[in-house]
Amino acid sequence: MRHPILIPLSVAAALALSACDNSGDAQVERALQDLNVVDETNLNDVMLTIGDPDEAVNYFRGASANDPGRIDLMRGLAKSLIRAGRASDAVAAWQAVVAHPEVSNDDRVELADAYIRVNDWDAAAATLNTIPPTYETFKRYRLEAMVADSKEQWEKADSFYETAVGLTTTPAGVYNNWGYSKLTRGDYAAAERLFLDALRHNSSMFTAKNNLVLARGAQRNYDLPVVEMSQIERAQLLHTMALTAIKQNDVITGKSLLREAIDTHPQHFAEATRSLRALEDNVAN
């Protein structure tokens, strides 16, 4: 009489055990999926920062092919192409990202940046115009300033540079770009001040040092600025100053600066030596 009761109970127990096993398997599967996502995220970050750029391109291209439509992988490919110096390919990659339903304003800024890298200033301007003015980021305004420069819209450029400076804690690069903008306009005194601002924020930026020498030389001030520099940098800056002087027909000053550059350099300064020899040959002829 008890068997009919025991059999259903045994079946029920077996089903319950089976359900527990299935539930456990599902939990393990979910845990493994979560672990894979974490591992993949870490790998993506590595590829975007310290990985070899070409390897990163191959990685994200393969990952995107295996999982098409994932915007994070599409972004990774576009960023890796920029890192690899393949700006033309990056434009196409960022265009695909911008066409994605989950596109962000930051993606549009990156597309504008890619356009600038291939000198397509009109496309960069058009892309930036699709971003609402309420979206205010450092990179957006830095690019806006560069586009305004390309169109010789100086007041706009100055306004954008000033805004960009206020949106970053490392404005040296912006000050350098702004100074170069002033240099191309012939406003040498303002350019000099901006290059000094750049060096105040980053004393090791050689580009700003070289531009500062150009700005001073354009004003016929042939004394090197009092800024931090190595012996090799001093020689290179003297060479830049010398060429600036020669360009302005201050030949005697230029020759003197070239000799000083050659004497200052701790090794053989081939470039300065060639410049001096060419200058002396020209004078002799």
UniProtKB/TrEMBL annotation:
Residues 1-19 form the signal peptide. PROSITE patterns: PROKAR_LIPOPROTEIN. Coiled coil: none annotated. The keyword Signal applies. Pfam families: TPR_16, TPR_19. Transmembrane segments: none annotated. Keywords: Signal. InterPro entries: TPR-like_helical_dom_sf. This is Tetratricopeptide repeat-containing protein. The lineage of its organism: Bacteria, Pseudomonadati, Pseudomonadota, Alphaproteobacteria, Rhodobacterales.
